[in-house]
Each structure stands twice: as structure tokens, then as C-alpha cells.
Amino acid sequence: MTPENDDPTERTSDGTDAVRAVEDRWTPYRRALRRDDQYVFDRLFEYGEGHAAAIERLTHRSPVVPLFAAVDLEQEKRLDTLEARLDALEDDLNRTDGDGRP
Length: 102
Hints:
By secondary structure, this protein is mainly α. It has helices at 12-25, 27-32, 35-50, 52-57, 64-94. It has five helices and no strands.
């Protein structure tokens, strides 16, 4: 596979391997977390795997940097979604009178 290949489906293997390698190095940290935090921690790596093609394209000395960028991107998307939902709920509330009826 060459970097000139623009089909992301053909590049995800190396990116996924990079994410899993970082995840393996963080295993002792994960084990020290409470069980409910482990679930959230695992989700961060799922976010990374969702951006494996982009992670593979960024050659960086530390494989953690592109992984964290992918995690940040997913968290920003979640925030955008939640803010949009909140705005819609506020709009609905503003269109009703005090007793909840339009």
C-alpha cells in the first residue's frame, strides 16, 4: 500500500494497528481505573479506530498524538450534537407559554 492511495478503506489496517499498539501500552493504566471509567476509556480507543485512515496518514514521532486528535474530533462532534439538541429544546420551550402549551 502506498501513501498515494486515496482509498481510505485500503489504509485502515495500519492505522488500526497503531491505535491498538497505543491501547496495549496503556493497559496498566486502564487496569488501575474503576470499572465505569474503563468503559469510557475504551470508548476513546474506539473513536481512534474510527479515524484509523487519518491516523495512518499522519506520521508523527509519537503515535499518541494522532490518536488524541481523533479523540478530540469525536468529542467535538458529540458536543456539537448536544448543543444543537439543547438549542432545539430551548427553542421549543420559548415557543410555549408558561403552562407548556403553544
